[in-house]
Amino acid sequence: MSQFFSIHPDTPQARLIKQAAEIIRKGGLVVYPTDSCYALGCQLDNKDALERIKQIRKLDDKHHFTLVCHDLSQLGQYAQVDNRAYRMLKAATPGSYTFILRATKEVPRRVWHPKKQTIGLRVPNHAVPLALLTELGEPLLSSTLLLPGEDEPLTDAWEIRDRLEHEVDLVIEGGYCGTEPTTVVDLSNDYPELLRQGTGSLAPFGL
Fold this sequence. Notes:
207 residues, alpha/beta, 21% strand, globular
């Protein structure tokens, strides 16, 4: 049975953030709010929780998982970022974007794209995950909470708890997040490539 925390979307309660971080450190899988949709998240090196995400979402090995980072400097630890990409990232973070970049050795190979050696990264513009990331001191390995056979992500935290209470360890309710996912931009090559149009504007990338 999962725990359920209601955390204020603008001024997160420090006590609840600390408790949520401790659940993650102990190997927990959590549902948390972002600036686009609710997401599943766990520690980067947690193999068991990664498999649970794959099971919940019925994902194959070609899926791009995302590292959700606190800021651009943390993102730079886990991805290869040249000057051109850095300028674009600086203009677009924090925000509703997922960037595809080549992974560094800090990222376990099991979450790389098997052929491209890339990983998704993002810095959300939402107080709850930013507070949680600050408390953790490391990124969250994440995936949008989109269940198999459904066209849109779940938006109601109470419904999420009802449907996933035996599959996750914690559901964080942080207000309505919407159903439109992030804009996904591949920055791993010479020129930015739009992979998915979502909530983020294309202006920073000249697309």
